[in-house]
Amino acid sequence: MLGGTGLHMRVGDRAREIGYWINVAHLNRGVATEAAAALTRVGFEIDRLARIEIHCGPHNTRSAAVARKLGYTHEATLRERAIDAAGNPRDTMIWTLFAADYPRSPCAGRELEAFDAAGRRIL
Length: 123
Prior knowledge:
Layout: E1 3-8, E2 15-22, H1 31-46, E3 51-56, H2 61-69, E4 73-83, E5 89-98
Parallel strand pairs: 2-3
Antiparallel strand pairs: 1-2, 3-5, 4-5
């Protein structure tokens, strides 16, 4: 298994949060960047969202690099807003891309094919 990803509805109306994890055996191969770019395109081109966010811990340099590569802006680092694996509070970086900025982002030019559940191509 390479990992997992999702376009989550927990950040408000007409907005989504991209979440992902990559199996340690597949790190540094661009998998997270490719998945986040595809989800960004789906979010803006199919779902017509106004905003997409990527959240990560401040020490998660790989996730921050994915957001940065795809043209997301670091909006804020919120203190003690998430819980780490040990159950302790941790800070969270919020990276945002707005629909108005999407056409100029590296995501917009990414090649990809997307299909619905019936196998029909949607991108």
